[in-house]
Amino acid sequence: MSALVALLVVVAAAWNLKNRELGTNQVDASASGEADPEASPTSDFDDAQRVRLYDRKIDVAGIRWEEVQRGTLVVTRTLPARFAYDDTRHVSLRTPTDGVLESILVKPGDSVDRGQPVAVLRSPSIGTARNQILSEKAKLDLAQETYRWEADIHAGVSDLAKRIRAGEAIDAIKQSMKDKTIGEFGGQLLTMYSKSNLANQLSRSVGDLGDSGAISGRVIQERQSDRQQSEAALEAAIEQSLFQTRQSMIQAEAKRNDAERRLRIAKQTLGTLLGTLADSMGGLDVSPNELDVSRLTIQSPLTGTIESKTFSASERVAAQDELFVIADTSSLWVEADIRGRDWQSIHVSEGDVVMVSTPAMNMPPQPATVYTIGRQVDPASG
């Protein structure tokens, strides 16, 4: 009972003390001349329900008054994203065929230039294809030489036939033809032309003597017959020589064209075997050294950095095994994920500028340009 009385006495004392503090505050406020700007005698709230803030308290609380205005509210969305290689500056360098890596010339982190050797591969398939190219090239060289020879002979024989038919002196013909190729046909024509000239001279001399009666008519006829036969034989030899030399030239040209096609096919075979390496290395890399035809120097198709390396020297590799990943990281892509609940609230178009922040790098946000907006939805994450 005494404890209950003591508790009531404490509560009453506290209530009196609180009333005194409130009264003192109200008196102080009135004495300082501060007026309540919101005080209104017609208010529905009494003093117990009203919160009074004077100028000094407003300044301490940092409250500011602004005029309400109508405007557009811009909502900023933060999306999870990740860096990715620029596909136009990124390549997975693969082996063109089965073989053994003779050496690896670079390591991850190395900077490489376009065309710089990065590995050396030995492959029997490449050796066979290159050997076929060298063989077809040798055949083409021989065919071209043969064609030039046959064409020169045909041109020389044609010129010789023209001079013979014009009746030029044999010594003048030999002098004009000494720097030209006429082959065996030219020699035969010159011999027959010389015999034809002799027959003509004999026929004319016999004809003069026949007029005087010194030689019989039979001898004259024989000499004229010999002249006619020699002329006919010479014309036939000319026609035959022109035909055969022309045919030989055409056959040589056909063999030359066939050799060119075979060389082209051999190069295409090697190009198919090398795949994209043929273009990236600027050619088929056909070694002129016949002892090294199976050795392929693999070059970087672009300027960049070695991002990863899969194999080491002396390892056996199969066709299309990935040797290196080479990328130019001076420009990267950022792939951002937009979830279904944000689709309607995000309005961006290709070419718009967005800000990319990388918290781990402790760098300020960097601007990026929207390249494309995907249309594929991940069925697992949405």
What does this protein structure show overall?
The structure is a single chain. The chain has 382 residues and is α+β, with helices and mostly antiparallel strands. Among the domains are: 2-53; 131-271. The chain is built from 7 helices and 12 strands. It has a 4-stranded antiparallel sheet with strand order 2-9-7-4, with no helix packed on it. Helix 3 runs antiparallel to helix 6. The longest helix is centred in the middle third of the chain and has 58 residues, at 217-274.
Q: How is the topology of this model organized?
A:
Elements: H1 2-31, H2 55-61, E1 81-85, E2 90-94, E3 99-104, E4 111-112, E5 117-122, H3 124-165, H4 170-176, H5 183-212, H6 217-274, H7 276-280, E6 295-299, E7 304-309, E8 316-317, E9 322-327, E10 332-336, E11 353-356, E12 366-369
Antiparallel strand pairs: 1-10, 2-9, 3-5, 3-8, 4-7, 5-6, 7-9, 11-12
Helix pairs in contact: 3-5, 3-6, 5-6
Q: Kindly report the spatial arrangement of strands forming the biggest sheet.
A: 2-9-7-4
The topology string of helices and strands comes to HHEEEEEHHHHHEEEEEEE
Oligomer: single chain
**Compute the gyration radius: what is it?**
53 Å
User: What is the mean pLDDT?
Assistant: 80
Proportion in helices: 40-55%
Q: Helical stretch count?
A: 7
| Structural class assignment | alpha+beta
Tertiary shape: elongated
Please provide the count of β strands: 12
Low-confidence regions: 1-42
Strand content: 5-15%
The first-to-last residue Cα distance is 71 Å
Largest sheet properties: 4 strands, antiparallel
